[in-house]
Give the backbone structure.
Amino acid sequence: MSEISLRRYCSADRQSWNEFVAASRNATFLFDRGYMDYHAERFADHSMIALKAGRPVALLPANIREEAGRSVLQSHGGLTYGGWILPARHFDASDMLRLFDMLAIYCRTEGISRLDYRPLPHIYHRMPSQEDIYALFRQGACLTEVNLSCAIDLSAHPGLNTQQRRNLRRAIATEGVVIEEMPDVAPFHKLLAGCLAERHGAVPVHSAAELQMLRDRFPGQIRIFTASDTEGIQAGACVYDTGMTAHTQYLCSTPRGRDSGLLTLLLDALCRRFPHCRYFDFGTSNESHGLLLNEGLYRQKSSLGGSGVAYTRYVIDY
């Protein structure tokens, strides 16, 4: 059996990297270099390629950050999740154990003293792919963070609770309601920015220009939906379609939209817009690295039919 070797990603690997991501068993389009590299200036890329017999067998989207005077390999600081990307076949748990051993040797050789690892949540796997969780256990990794997302299993959707059904009836009775998909990000982003400023004193992670650029690069995966009435757009959602899971990257509504239940109407409709997906994920509801749960926000998501999915984070010190 050929030995596994490791080397850093370079720009010449872009095409083969993207082809591997597209064919893998546990990747999303966020690992495509067209998405990863849009904010390359913010992160010192240190992605890794694992090879066997000269061919890629695993990829690790990663960056280097400096922390308290030491180098940390992080997977990946610019993404919600990271972890090793694996091929559909011919890579098993033994390979993963060897891969983590090789990564430990590489890090020590390069003066990297910590691995900060955020595995891909299972609802985004095309096939079961949690060999890395077992290898982390074998490496003595420390679980440092758990954030709780709320997702609907669309194959067994329990439906809306009583309050959300009332919201839905109210929305249906609202005059002139239209739900549509929008190619132009600007109107949605304006609504989003206003909603975040009003309710949380925050701004969107992506600027309008960044979100439009990403949507233009991935028009089939990044989709903008709005619900309008006679007064204009009242609710909106930016949905990332990963194939297995539709994830609400952003949700927003006006006070009028909340009062008339239009966000409920929009989300109920979106659960039928992605028949190829197994899950509809509303994202996490945490602060302080998972130590605080926004109970009201989580309850709102679960009232739409969702239940818990853990987004975990591990650390290994070398």
